[in-house]
Amino acid sequence: MKRNRFFALCLAFVMTLSLAACGNSEVPADSAPAELEEPKSSENPQLEVLEWNLAATLAEDHPMTIALNAFADAFAEETAGRVQIKVYPNMMLGSETEQVEMARAGTAAMVVGGLSTLAVYDDGLSVYSLPYIFRSYDDCEEYLSDSEYGDNIWESFRQLTNLRFVALELNGARCLSTKNVQVQSVKDLNGVKIRCMDAPLWQDVFTAFGAVPVPIAFTELYVALQTGVVEGQDNPINVSYAQKFYEVQKNIYKTEHNYNTTFVLINDDCWNQLTADEQAVFNDLVDEYLYDYYYELYWPYEGEAIQVMEEAGVRIWEQDEFDIQSFWDAADGMINEKYMTNAAYADSINSIREYFQY
């Protein structure tokens, strides 16, 4: 698995017959880009050129997409053009679920997916979305990407899905925001309507905090905040910035009750098409670009988001400015009551608590 260097550097579519994931798969003509680069010729004529696509979720200018493109370019260069990866950002190939299915089938060689999507295939992954299951970015990355537990998690997932773990990208932490309600502890959320995702786990989170969870589609959230249908929401700071939620919210609390974990995965059959030397190069470049370079880009990106929002009059509350312990305690109480009774969840929860001595 990957070294924990997080804080060190603070479709069904392919090109006609020429662009494929693991081999040559046709795609609808109306979904193909207008212009394509000619494939570079491999210096090793005995090995076929592999033309892969990578199904990504975020916009072209997001640090994750930039890092994925840099990785793809570097891998093509290091393999003398034998392995050429085309990154399709912004869910161009379909919804996240559809893209994961494409990668499972080999129509896409690689895919980016979040925990909620991957948990459809392995419900045990849902445990890592529980509030405060990890208490820091560093702990989250270490456990899921750089530990024996992580190895076991992803080996099990590979056997279930034919998808192999490549990298974990942390895309911010979910933070509570409100318009008029000032929050110093969970007591101040009593009866406050907070938007949540339409899933039992997320409703449990805000119920535990004393709020009234209101499931609302993400695409409808801005208007719901603007009109007062809900009084608050939770998203990573960079998402609140990108979606301009700060225009209709005046307080952002760094509750960081959940880390937005996104995973890069590769179809196992595609992986096995690489030579041993290419696999070693692939892993080295993952460290260089999908960890180090990504975070070099991400932290200034989030810093810019904070600056713009503060200039717009938003107050960013640090954890020492409100009672973060009350949030931890409320989350632990809910987890102990509702999730420790599930043996599969309990084993994972206990292993995390023991590992980090929470």
Characterization of this structure:
The two termini are 24 Å apart. This protein has twelve helices and nine strands. Strands 1, 2, 3, 4, 7, 8 and 9 form a seven-stranded mixed β-sheet that branches. The protein has a two-stranded parallel sheet with strand order 5-6. By secondary structure, the protein is of the alpha/beta class. The radius of gyration is 21 Å and the shape is globular. Helix 1 runs antiparallel to helix 10 and helix 4 (137-145) crosses helix 5. The protein has helices at residues 63-78, 96-105, 115-118, 137-145, 148-161, 200-208, 221-227, 237-242, 268-271, 276-311, 324-338, 343-356; strands spanning 50-55, 83-88, 110-114, 163-178, 193-196, 212-215, 232-236, 251-267, 315-317.
**CATH level-four homologous superfamily name:** Bacterial extracellular solute-binding protein, family 7
Helix content: 40-55%
Pattern of helices and strands: EHEHEHHHEEHEHEHEHHEHH
- What is the second-level CATH architecture? 3-Layer(aba) Sandwich
The mean pLDDT is 88
Q: Could you tell me the radius of gyration in angstroms?
A: 21 Å
Strand tally is: 9
Q: Can you tell me the CATH class?
A: Alpha Beta
